[in-house]
UniProtKB/TrEMBL annotation:
One of its GO terms (molecular function) is DNA-directed DNA polymerase activity. One of its GO terms (cellular component) is DNA polymerase III complex. NCBIfam families: dnaX_nterm, PRK05563.1. The keyword Glycosyltransferase does not apply. CDD domains: AAA. Belongs to the DnaX/STICHEL family. This is DNA polymerase III subunit gamma/tau. Its EC number is 2.7.7.7. GO terms for biological process: DNA-templated DNA replication.
Length: 362
């Protein structure tokens, strides 16, 4: 069975990590100077590289064969073991499954044991916010008096759920979503190594669908590469993405206050198989870009990355025709519809009601 792309091309050194350069620089400097903290907190959205950063940090700390202290050789036993996931001095704990006081007590006993191979024993606690209150208090005691050889890395998507006392005893790094250029460059590198070619428009769709998560982008790319002819239209269907032309046509009806045309259009796209929930989500994102163009014309360069030249011209024209109040009203009603559609017995009803409210506001 072929390996999934995000595992096959997981970064093995700091130099290979995409984005999060503020974190890479700080950790490398800490290793250079020997100013290593006993506890770190990696927080941020899923798929942004928290676990990968923890593994590369562990590898760099324990690799003694590299010419540079803040780098890895990728050849020694420690580097090979970490690449294969068999390094005994990196203990990964899923707090969602091992969240009780007994699990942390077992960890407390294990922490006392010196590293078997490397210089440091690293404990990576994933989804740390899932620990029970009792387990969190037990973990806190370990963070207060850790052995010199032990390093704790807590990874979480919800840092606000951690005990404040735990957060105060860690060095906190905030991971963020990657920008479109960072993701596209990484995907293009994978395509080169896989000896595959994709249309630029398809790569743009993958980047857009990833939402800034590199892991999601690599997973989507793997799915697309399994197709014989991954054209733009085929990929849109697989990803459930709605054509921007459909969205801009709908917005035209709202701009021109054509209530009947807008309602008929909703039923028309429903009958042709458009996923209305996804249509609403994509329309909200489209209107968000319209809002940026309206409030800050200088944002055009940034927004243009998500449009073709023709689509951008249409969006700019619609921006000129819309007032800020109208944009706010459309977004507000679409947000309501995006929630209501989950429970509506008639899928198109929440969007139809949104149209009535939007046009009625003028």
């Amino acid at each position: 069975m072929s390996q999934v792309l995000y595992r096959k091309y997981r970064p093995q050194s700091f130099d290979e990590i995409v984005g999060q350069q503020h974190i890479v620089t700080t950790l490398r400097n800490a290793i250079k100077t020997g100013d290593i903290s006993h506890a770190y907190l990696f927080s941020g959205p899923r798929g942004t590289g928290k676990t990968t950063m923890a593994r590369v940090f562990t590898k760099t700390l324990n690799c003694n064969s590299s010419a540079q202290k803040d780098d890895v050789c990728l050849k020694c036993d420690i580097c090979n073991q970490l690449e294969k996931g068999s390094f005994v001095d990196l203990i990964e704990i899923d707090a969602a499954s091992n969240r009780g006081i007994d699990d942390i007590r077992e960890l407390k006993e294990a922490v006392r044991v010196s590293p078997a191979v490397g210089d440091y024993k690293v404990y990576l606690v994933d989804e740390a916010h899932m620990l029970t209150k009792e387990a969190s208090n037990a973990l806190l005691k370990m963070l207060e008096e850790p052995p010199a050889h032990a390093i704790f890395i807590l990874a979480t998507t919800e840092p606000h759920k951690l005990l404040p006392t735990i957060m105060s005893r860690t060095q906190h790094f905030d991971f963020h979503f990657l920008n479109s250029d960072e993701i596209k460059n990484k995907l293009q590198g994978i395509l080169t190594r896989e000896k595959r070619i994709l249309e630029s428009a398809v790569l743009d769709l993958v980047t857009l669908a990833s939402g800034g998560s590199l892991r999601d982008a690599e997973s989507i790319l793997g799915k697309i590469l399994s197709l014989n002819t991954p054209t733009e239209q085929v990929v849109r269907g697989i990803l459930g993405l709605v054509d921007i032309i459909k969205i801009s046509n709908f917005i035209d009806f709202l701009i021109e206050n054509k209530k009947d045309d807008a309602l008929n259009y909703i039923n028309e796209i429903t009958q042709t198989g458009t996923d209305l929930e996804q249509f609403i989500i994509n329309t909200i994102e489209y209107m968000r870009k319209i809002l940026f163009l309206k409030m800050s014309p200088s944002s055009e360069k940034l927004i243009a990355k998500n449009f073709t030249k023709e689509e951008l011209q249409v969006a700019k024209k619609q921006t000129d025709l819309l007032t800020e109040k109208k944009i706010y009203g459309i977004i507000k009603q679409l947000l309501n519809a995006s929630q209501d559609i989950k429970y509506s017995p008639v899928p198109q009803l929440p969007l139809e009601l949104a149209v009535v409210e939007i046009i009625g506001e003028e």
